[in-house]
Amino acid sequence: MGLIYSKQMLGAAAALALFTAAVPANAQTRAETLRYVTGAAVNTLDPNIPGSTREAFAVSLSTYDRLVSFGRKQLNGKWVFDLDTIRGELAESYTVSPDGLKITFKLRSDAKFQDGSPVTAEDVKWSLDRAVTAKILGKAQLLTGSLTDASQFKVIDASTFEVTLPQPDKLALPNLATVYPIIINSKLAKAHATEEDPWAQAWLKENTAGSGAYIVETFKPGEQVILKRNDAWNRAAGDKQAFFKRLIIQSVPEPATRANLVEKGDADIVIDLQASDAQALEAKGKLQVISTPQYNAITFISMNNQMAPFDKPDVRRAVAYALPYDDMFKAALFSRGDLLAGATWADGKPPSGAFPIKQPIKLDLEKAKAYLKAAGYPDGFSTTFSFNVGQSATAEPMAALLKESLAKIGIKVDIQKLPDAQMSTQITEKKLPFFTEGIVAWLPSTDYFYRNFYTGNQRWNYSSIDNAELTAVAQKARFEADKAKYEADGKMLNAMNFDLMPQIPLWQPSQDAVMASNLTGYTYQFHRQVDYRDLSRK
Amino acid sequence: MTTLGATAIRAARRFASSLPALFGVLIFTFLLMRVLPGDPAVFFASGPNSGKEEIETIRKQMGLDKPVPQQLFLYLYDVGRGNLGRSLMTGQNVTKDLRERLPASLELTFSALLIALVLAIPLGVLAALKPGSLVDHGVRLFCALGVCVPTFVSGLLLIYIFYYLFGVSPDPTGRVDIFTTLPPAHTGFLLIDFALAGDFDGWWAAFKQLILPACTMALFVIAPLARITRASMLASLGSDFVRTARSVGLSWWRIIITYALRNAILPVITIAGIVFSTMLGANVLVEKVFSWPGVASYALDALLSSDYAPVQGFVLLMASVFVIVNLVVDVLYGIADPRISIG
């Protein structure tokens, strides 16, 4: 049985709240302009360039199309991206073969690049070849969906394109909706390719050759990007155009200034305010504050499982029971987000195979002392706790509470604040014993989390855990097609994780999107940035 | 005319003699960046799936896979050809970034220095004329306040009052309102470019953006300038030639301006030169608060992410500016006091 999704069917459902607003006939230019301010900066127009920032990702979503994109769903009353609904973007429809090894895309006949030339299967082939062949970021991402080689991509005819997989992989299709596999105007790009740069990376970094909803008007790296609407674009849900005629994406490094700008109405939306500012603005009630727990991101307290004393599970358990979770959550995030502690698991078994789930752990100093004694450290020990400067607003109060609480069971903690580049270097080299860091997964499925963050000698395995059984279950789960078995594997992984306690999941911080009260359509996206195409003004 | 020519020749010789120092700065910064524990490749390879391969790619791209002496040699070769390398952070050539950002910083610093001098010299003179009086104490209090309030506090305070409360100044985001069309770039100084283009609305828009950050910076440097003016005026007012001038009955105006101030101005020029160079490099907080696209905030961001090329380029630029400013100060000495010749 082949699965056939048509974009109209899904589009109709997803379009409900998206474009409820009609454009007033004689609208002011300001009303048709969206001004977004951010502390970070756009540094490239091609999201594939190593070193691309998240702001650059967001711009690329508006300037390029992908074959498919994620739908959206409501989670606790807020719109978030939906990993399980994939709708066509440049593809009009797609079919997955019964054995799951072939995905066939039918391209939209009306899709044109911004220079007016039609989007063909040749362009798709060149773009995806580039994503898996060139030395760019897309390569490592697409690998997670079994997309590794140019021979997997085949042009059937001008508007039909086929992807072949070595094994059925649930993440193959979602991967094509991520930031990297942009569809590029191959003729234009090839004209700017050189012998040592066959994929035109240098040119595409500063120029766009896409079919996306917005056209780059000015690009000043590190300062601002101004985009104007591509009126021919109709790939929003329900075959609509994007709402705003002009987008201004501007870097404003000082968070207090960003808060002032949005409060005065000079900026329309900002997502990186300090938690205290977001709270204050919410309390004033003039603006809309949509606060979505980042359900694909987690903040951890990690312990290096290869380094004494954290190589002993009992030491790690002791630390886990000695942390004042509620106080830390309040002090660091003003309780904005989802705390991952304080659950009760009936008969000690994880209630779900999803990841992350609330852990059955809370502050219990007696238990912590007992574990410490069992580990052979009845009088405690000394260690350092590190965090990076970029996170100090949240990590500093959290570290202070951690230090105070661990002192009660005899663990003396020195707090060490590291510049961001130093912190990432030391994490990669596995030199830090005890630290806090965050992770994010674009495609948040349980096996993906465990495979990327709990296995292998690589940077993202913060706790450096090396457990053969856990690795085996996670690898097996990756290609598990049976939903019930997958859930069972997930539960098993969650149980093992809690027992081994390689690192302590603390919370999922909220993304506080603070915006003018007349904006609608905001959706929390997998890349944790604003997708400008979602927004409109009432 | 010959004196002017001689000054130029001496200035050129002076400049040439500072080249070894610049070279030293170049090598020192290069080595320092490599000794710092942060690895830029790891930092920039921080996409959600970046592994060893991405790190290696970036390392190769930055030339970090080669041994350090070879890297240094290549870097010197590039610098010799006017290429300062590529920034990973902005993805641009450092030379281009600096060329775009330096005028922004210079315009801000010049304006701030001008405001500071216009305020500080009269204040210092006033304080010196009546030492110990209420005016003197007032000036002292003002200076103390200016110097003890950090620039980001005074900056945020000014924004709060003039932008947030009264709405008289435009939003503090960069050099010019985002909807204003920029004039053709001749000098990179927006005030001059707008004036050249005859666009006075644009000039006014740029001026309004500039005035708050310039005042913030000026507040911070008024103190050293006013205090040094006061001290040096006191010495000069108590000197023999001022007593003589008074005794022959010259007007007080002439005594103060022509005789006392002209003799007292030398140390003020020295300090102004130092203050200028320091402001240019150290006004990072002001640049951050006002989203000013200047060189200092650029260098700080680069330093945090261990982006080698911009930091090295910035330090080299600052060293060159320092050399030039000192040269200008020396030339100004000669104008202020013809007895002094530079050499």
UniProtKB/TrEMBL annotation, chain A:
GO terms for cellular component: ATP-binding cassette (ABC) transporter complex; outer membrane-bounded periplasmic space. The keyword Lipid biosynthesis does not apply. One of its GO terms (molecular function) is peptide transmembrane transporter activity. It comes from the Bacteria. Keywords: Signal, Transport. The keyword Transport applies. Gene3D superfamilies: Dipeptide-binding Protein, Domain 1, Dipeptide-binding Protein, Domain 3, Periplasmic binding protein-like II. Residues 86-458 form the Solute-binding protein family domain. Residues 1-27 form the signal peptide. GO terms for biological process: peptide transport. InterPro entries: Peptide/Ni-bd (IPR030678), SBP_5 (IPR039424), SBP_5_dom (IPR000914). It is found in: Periplasm. Belongs to the bacterial solute-binding protein 5 family. PANTHER family: PERIPLASMIC BINDING COMPONENT OF ABC TRANSPORTER, PERIPLASMIC OLIGOPEPTIDE-BINDING PROTEIN-RELATED. This is ABC transporter substrate-binding protein.
TrEMBL record, chain B:
Keywords: Cell membrane, Membrane, Transmembrane, Transmembrane helix, Transport. It is found in: Cell membrane. Its main location: membrane. Pfam families: BPD_transp_1, BPD_transp_1_N. Gene3D superfamilies: MetI-like. GO terms for cellular component: plasma membrane. One of its GO terms (molecular function) is dipeptide transmembrane transporter activity. Residues 102-333 form the ABC transmembrane type-1 domain. It comes from the Bacteria. It is a multi-pass membrane protein. InterPro entries: BPD_transp_1_N, MetI-like, MetI-like_sf. The keyword Transmembrane helix applies. Belongs to the binding-protein-dependent transport system permease family. This is Peptide ABC transporter permease. It comes from Tardiphaga robiniae. The lineage of its organism: Bacteria, Pseudomonadati, Pseudomonadota, Alphaproteobacteria, Hyphomicrobiales.
